[in-house]
Amino acid sequence: MLARIGARERRSPVENAIVERGTARNAPARNDDISALSSRLGVQLPASYVAYLQVTDGSLHPGTDGLLLPVSRVDRLSVALPEQARTIAAGPASYDCDPAQTLAPRAVSGELRREALLHALAVSEVASGQFIALLSDESSRVSAVAFDFWDVPRLYADFFDLMLDEVERSLAALDSAIP
Prior knowledge:
Helices cover 39% and strands 18% of the residues. It is α+β, with helices and mostly antiparallel strands. It has one domain (28-58, 66-166). The strands form 3 sheets. Strands 3-6-8-9-10 form a 5-stranded antiparallel beta sheet. It has a 3-stranded antiparallel beta sheet with strand order 1-2-7, with helices on one face. A hairpin with a 4-residue loop joins strand 1 (59-61) and strand 2. The longest helix is centred in the C-terminal third of the chain and has 18 residues, at 159-176. The protein starts with a helix and ends with a helix. The model has no long low-confidence stretch (mean pLDDT 82).
């Protein structure tokens, strides 16, 4: 990915930062900070998200010009992304999530309830308003969602599956963008 970004003549600020740093990743999160996040929000974080944080405490997200938030900035959707939360609160009671309608091979089908989304943990920030969130209902088979206001939300059983789809979507966005 770094080579693709570096070869482009025109880059976004996020892409420039990735080239300058030589990586999209941050240093790993400290275990104490991960435990403090879980305690502060009163949830058990999905194991795959904890494993992600142990590798990188957030990262830059090329292709969307966004970032995956470091532990210090992860919070409930209503706190971290209040504008998006207000829009969702005024929207439909639920969303039918059908992976056949998306370019996301690892997504799973299901219903995303507005209340579950409003109580989710926002783990990304993108200027366009899209976001990635962790659902805090431990009884659900779904643990993460990628939400775009202009597209069908994508549900995932595992945070890593979401991240793999996001990498593929970012690469496709980089490949299709004007050089």
